[in-house]
Structure formats: C-alpha cells, structure tokens
Amino acid sequence: MRNSLIIFLYKRSKKIYQNWYKSNSPWKVTISQLLEMDSKSIGYNLGVFLKKNDFKLEAKLENHDVFHIITGINTSVIGEISLQFFLLGNGKRSPYLIMVILIGLILYIDKAITFKSFYTKGKRATPFYQLDFEKLLDHSLDNFKLNYII
After folding, report:
1. pLDDT tens digit at each of 150 positions of the chain
2. Number of domains the chain is built from
3. Within a domain: residue 19?
4. Could you give the CA distance from residue 138 to residue 23 in angstroms, rounded to a whole number?
5. On the CB side of 18, how many CA atoms lie within 13 Å of its CA?
6. Whole-model pTM?
7. Contact assessment for residue 96 and residue 79, using Cβ atoms and an 8 Å cutoff
8. 65 is a domain residue
9. pLDDT tens for residues 59-68?
10. DSSP 11-36
11. Following CA atoms 119, 123, 126, 130 in sequence, which dihedral angle do they give, to the nearest 10 degrees?
C-alpha cells in the first residue's frame, strides 16, 4: 500500500517538476551512444543501467539516473527515498527533494535508520549533486567515486 501511494505521487508530480522546476536543457545523447563509450566511463555505465532497467533518458532529469550509478543505490521505492537522503546529506536542496524526504519518512518511519545511514554517506562524500554530468560522461566511474569519496 505504501509503495503504491509513493508511485502514484511520483507519477503525478514528475511532469510538474520536470516542466516547471527544472530549467536545464535535455541532454543530446542517446542510450546507444552511451553504450558505445568506454566500458569504464560514467556514460557507458549509465547506458547499461538504463538498458538493464528498461528505462529511457528522461528529459531534464538525466542526472537522477547518474546518481543511482554513482551511489549504487537501487531504484526500489526505499532506494529512491534513500537516494534523496544521500543527496540531502551531499548538500542538495530542492522542493521536490524535501517533499520526497518528508513523505518517505512519514510513510516509512520504520526505515529511519536506513535513511539516516544514507544521509551520513552523502554528508561524507564530496559534494557532487550540482555537477553537469553530461560533460562528465566520458570520465571513469571508478575514479569519480574515488575522488568524491563515494
């Protein structure tokens, strides 16, 4: 029931966030192009992640999937909420992030310890949430994780 409510709220709010809040331009890259990159690159690993999960690149929301591959956090409902806690710890602030955290904490208070651990991990990592990952697609994923202490 909780998962269904979160998924419903996500589907209702995503387009509003994407069209009204996000001002960045959509990336000019395809999944096929990502999969042609060096196998150790952020871009290639993003392509594998998208293909494996049967996802597409969401215009203006591309960084979100990069956050998943960088942090290793899965895309389950708990994983999505955990990712937002990680990003909060990393310094990101947005109305959408705050909304997900508040609703997630209310609905999943039993996961508060898990959420706190992801917040702490995000706090420990060097801030990266604000980077333009389209320009970093050819960079090594392992080196990025090492440099940003992830």
Report:
1. 887 877 777 777 666 665 566 567 889 999 999 999 999 999 999 999 999 999 999 887 899 999 999 999 999 999 999 999 999 999 999 888 999 999 999 999 999 999 999 999 999 999 999 999 999 999 999 999 999 998
2. 1
3. no
4. 24
5. 15
6. 0.90
7. no
8. yes
9. 878 999 999 9
10. HHHHHHIIIII--SPPPS--HHHHHT
11. 60
Q: Which domain holds residue 59?
A: 2-6+28-147
Distance between CA atoms of residues 32 and 58, nearest Å = 15
Strand partners, 41: 140
Which phi and psi (to 5°) does residue 41 adopt?
-80, 160
Residue 104 lies in a domain: yes
- Amino acid letter, residue 124: R
Report if residue 16 sits inside a domain: no
d(C-alpha 115, C-alpha 110), whole Å = 10
